[in-house]
Amino acid sequence: MLREALLGLLLGTFTGITPGIHVNTLASLLRSFGLSAVVLFAMGLTHTFLDVIPSTFLGVPDEETALSVLPAHRLVLKGKGLEVVRIALIASFLAVLFFPPLVPLYLRLAPLYRPAFGKLAVLLLILLLVFTEKGVKRLHALFVIILSGLLGLLILSLSLNEPFYALFTGFFGVPVIVSSLLAGTRRIEPGSPELEITSKRLTLFSFMGTLFGMLASLLPAFTASQAALLGSFISRDERSFLAIVYSVNTANFLFAFLNFLKTGRERNGIVTLMKPLSLRALPAFLLVALFVGLAVLIYGEPLARFLAGALSRLPYRFINLAVLASLILLALLFDGLPGLLALTASSIVGYLAVILGVKRTNCMGSLMLPVLLR
Questions:
Q1: If we measure between CA atoms, which residue out of 37, 49, 10 comes closest to residue 282?
Q2: pTM above the 0.70 mark?
Q3: Which of 16, 72, 80, 201 could pair covalently with 56 via S-S, beta carbons 3.0-4.6 A apart?
Q4: What is the Cα 206 distance to its own chain's centre?
Q5: φ and ψ at residue 314, rounded to 5 degrees
Q6: Residue 28: how many CA atoms within 13 Å on its side-chain side?
């Protein structure tokens, strides 16, 4: 089992630090090799720890961490990039520690799921997004929600291999890169990893993120990104929000796996590649989760420091142009011209939110509207 966990750790590290490559994509490509459940589990869990690196220093998000790009990027431009990484690693590890005590409660809740619960949660979230804006910006927010929702309906109806790549890279990744290019930022510095958030607050918001991640895994209509969005109404500063986002991401993965063991429901792309397992396997996977969490906690920050240091020696404009070109190339490789058109359309909507002066989180309408209309 140790050998399988190490292989999963290696593969998850690769997907975690590689811009635009999601763990589900690589797992699907390796399907023919018959990867074991332990490899897939370790791979997916490792990815939830390390996807902070490209989303922080390059602005390239996954669906699960798309909302973190905005505050993380702001902190990077202030020379706080390594602090973002440390917050993410600790928050993810705390989610692993909070997971076992919540298992008994979750096993009682998982069989009670009804589709209406998820739709109600999404509707309330839309109302929160609109009414937390002021004046005419409420109309602007509603417009962005509806527009992104219609675009989500269109893109998700197409036979794309990676529809979420086009959506979330366009909404959250490309506008960040374009804004940096227009602002003329010349160079980034990794900065100090010293935390400017107290241990108490980091633990508290990580626990809240764990609960939100548990909720997201119970309600398939309510994604990890939407759970993190809910957390944005509670956190009062960037660092608290980041603690919620990254603990949501890890907790959602763990609880989705537990849901798979309990009910057989497939709540994420990794478990769809696994053969059916029973709850008797849970103790072994808890050990794997602890091993992976400790390992990434040890090497994650030095890895981020090395990569960020390498990037800091390059002109930031060159990095942005290179990343933008790679995002376009990936869209073409994944889905050809339709993928590129989808990326372009979502990028326009994402930048429109910037122009209108409303939160880009309103672009989460791309998931919320399709859920309500199902």
A1: 37
A2: yes
A3: 72
A4: 15
A5: -110, 150
A6: 11
Question: For residue range 69-104, what is the model confidence (pLDDT) as tens digits?
Answer: 667 777 877 788 899 999 999 999 999 999 999 999
Give me the DSSP letters along 312-349: HTS-HHHHHHHHHHHHHHHHHHHHHHHHHHHHHHHHHH
Rounded distance between C-alpha atoms, residue 361 and residue 169, angstroms = 13
* Cα Rg, the chain, nearest whole Å: 19
Q: Which amino acid is at 89?
A: L
Query: How many CA atoms, within 13 angstroms, populate the side-chain half-sphere of residue 299?
Result: 9
Helix axes 365-373, 224-232, angle to 10 degrees: 120
Q: How far out from the chain centre does Cα 137 lie?
A: 27
Please tell me the number of Cα atoms within 13 Å of 17 on its side-chain side.
17
Q: Would you say how long the chain is, in residues? A: 374
- The alpha-helical segments, DSSP class H, found in the chain are 2-17, 23-29, 37-50, 52-57, 69-77, 81-109, 115-131, 137-157, 163-168, 174-183, 199-218, 224-232, 238-263, 282-312, 316-356, 365-373
Contact between 232 and 69 under an 8 Å Cβ cutoff? The reply is: no
Both tokens assigned to 57 = 């220093």
CA distance linking residue 298 with residue 312, whole number of Å: 23
Where does residue 188 fall: left (phi above 0), alpha (psi -120 to 50 degrees), or beta otherwise?
beta
- Residue 148 gets which letter from DSSP? H
